[in-house]
Design goal:
The protein is mainly α. The protein has 23 helices and no strands. Helix 5 runs antiparallel to helix 15 and helix 9 runs antiparallel to helix 11. It is globular. The relative contact order is 0.12.
């Protein structure tokens, strides 16, 4: 009964704090941490010790999966260089620099334990940053890079942490760490891809929405657990499974199932994210008492944590500067390639095979070459239109907040780790300092640097163009001489006329003179579903080609899902 009361009060507190945060304009994760910090010192509040396994194996997989499902795969691919550098290279650099700092400031700690703590404080948590950024209108490319970094860097840090922990008891050569990391990544990607494809295959054959959504809840664990058993990164496997599901679901899973799944996952993500930030704040008093009980200097430990937080912020700022320069160079190079792509398109139009595109699968198929060329041209236009400048670099540099994963990962340090209570408190100080310092000032930074928002007027024009493409595909279906119902009978002309008039938007069922033995509503549903399915195929085609921005395609897919769901209500 006591546990039930705590859970109920916890949910009520989370909802109340989230509602208050919206009113005062502060990101809910930040408010929850502050509330947790205050509650930890209140009389009668018990000491909070979170089992790290609960965070890393129960909470983290569904959170990463939910975020990965909504990550546009094409944007992830286009900005993979930036995401890789931030989530892998920067994590390694931060681990090494922080490790040497800890080994210097804590005599007797040893490099292995120092690097383990460095790995713990290296990954960022993009939840607070993206929640602030979306509210203040950050461009979608910036948000994608931050979310992509948050998806992958946990895997990097946990693999480095495991290697450092192994080195506590036996020497581990540097080449072995690199090899283990590469193997962990390859196995995780294979496991995640297999689980992603298999789960979509199975769920596409379920006709019950509740059962379909219930099965989606276990997908992250189906990816995480086997990968961990194989010695790979379960976290990365979950991310890959989520990306695969997000990419394949619109093609194979019914719209009504996706809408229901999305609503349920949003609720789960909200509760899990909020709970871990609240619990994170509640741990402060426990960590202070543990450090005192171990007769370790509390004030000195807090000072080390503050220095480590400042070092992490400085390393990120120094790292982002050349990254921004590289991205700007990519945009300049893309500008110079415009004429090259035009020349290649002209060669294809004349029936010639461009030498630089005549390699790989389908090299003798002009149509496939044309599609490949068009896709690369769209990628090239993306780098030009979504140009990255110093303003975006400032936001990325100041969005390196650490979160609950840092605190939970620190708890996984073995009990015989030297100065373990002190290390846990250092990790906590780094997480809270970066979270509150950067999180609370990020809105001010965004306003000061005046990052250009997405081009809404251009999006509106592009959306009109996209609707024209979909309407054209619908007209092709309706003009097909072989258009017929599943049983082979013809659609009534009044039904065809109404669907033609509406194209993709349902208003009211048709009325008019039809034979007594014909159900115009059922015909209307069948034909509308047929037309919408054709439009969905066209939407997926332009998505794969990168013809329109992902934010526009996401909006269009959401609208399409809502219309498809209306007509799928009658499906078995």
């Amino acid at each position: 009964m006591e546990l039930t009361i705590i859970a109920v009060l916890g949910v009520i507190s989370i909802v109340a704090v989230a509602a208050l945060s919206r009113r005062i304009g502060v990101a809910a994760p930040l408010s929850l941490v502050v509330v947790g910090l205050a509650l930890s010192f209140m009389p009668g509040v018990p000491h909070i010790e979170i089992e790290p396994e609960i965070i890393l194996t129960v909470v983290l997989p569904p959170l990463l999966y939910a975020a990965a499902v909504h990550m546009p795969a094409i944007d992830f691919r286009r900005d993979f260089k930036a995401i890789f550098r931030l989530s892998v290279v920067l994590v390694v650099v931060t681990t090494l620099c922080s490790g040497y700092l800890f080994a210097w400031l804590i005599p007797g700690l040893g490099l292995a334990a120092a690097f383990a703590l460095g790995a713990v404080i290296s990954p960022t948590d993009a939840v607070a940053a993206t929640s602030v950024g979306k509210k203040l209108g950050l461009p979608s490319r910036l948000t994608t890079i931050l979310e992509g970094e948050g998806l992958v860097n946990d895997a990097t840090s946990l693999v480095l942490l495991a290697s450092a922990v192994s080195a506590l008891h036996t020497s581990v050569p540097l080449w072995r760490v690199g090899t283990d990391f590469a193997v962990a990544v390859v196995i995780a990607v294979l496991v995640g891809a297999f689980v992603g494809v298999a789960s979509v295959f199975v769920r596409s054959r379920l006709t019950d929405t509740v059962a379909n959504t219930a099965l989606s809840f276990v997908v992250p664990f189906l990816a995480f657990l086997p990968a961990e058993e194989l010695g790979a990164s379960g976290v990365l496997a979950v991310v890959v499974a989520g990306l695969v599901n997000g990419n394949l679901s619109p093609r194979f899973i019914r719209a009504r199932d996706r809408l229901a799944e999305n609503t349920n996952w949003m609720t789960i993500s909200f509760l899990l994210e909020s709970a871990i930030f609240l619990l994170m704040g509640l741990q402060l008093r426990t960590l202070l008492d543990q450090t005192n009980d171990a007769h370790l200097p509390v004030a000195g430990t807090i000072g080390i944590g503050l220095l480590a937080a400042l070092l992490a912020i400085a390393i990120r700022a120094l790292f982002v500067a050349p990254l921004v320069s590289s991205l700007r160079h990519d945009a300049d190079r893309a500008e110079s390639y415009r004429s090259v792509f035009d020349d290649l398109a002209e060669q294809l139009a004349r029936g010639e095979l461009p030498r630089r595109f005549d390699r790989g699968p389908g090299k003798k198929d002009p149509e496939r070459l044309r599609k490949r060329l068009d896709q690369r041209k769209r990628d090239n236009e993306f780098f030009i239109n979504e140009r990255f400048g110093w303003r975006g670099g400032v936001i990325i540099a100041w969005s390196g907040m650490r979160g609950a994963v840092t605190v939970a990962a620190a708890q996984t340090l073995p009990p015989d780790t030297p100065f373990r209570p002190q290390l846990l408190l250092v990790a906590f100080i780094v997480a809270v300092t970066t979270l509150l310092l950067q999180g609370l000032t990020l809105p001010w930074v965004i306003k000061k640097v005046r990052v250009p928002a997405d081009d809404t007027s251009g999006d509106r024009a592009a959306y009109v163009e996209l609707l024209d493409d979909l309407s054209q595909r619908a007209a092709e279906v309706l003009d097909d001489p072989g258009l017929a119902r599943p049983d082979g009978t013809r659609f009534e002309p009044v039904v065809v006329a109404r669907v033609r008039e509406e194209t993709a938007v349902r208003r009211v069922p048709p009325t008019g003179a039809v034979p007594d033995d014909v159900d115009p509503r059922e015909q209307y549903r069948e034909l509308s579903l047929l037309v919408l399915s054709a439009e969905q195929d066209e939407l997926l085609r332009v998505r794969s080609m990168g013809t329109y921005s992902s934010r526009l395609l996401t909006f269009a897919q959401d609208q399409m899902d809502r219309r498809l769901a209306q007509f799928q209500q009658g499906d078995a």
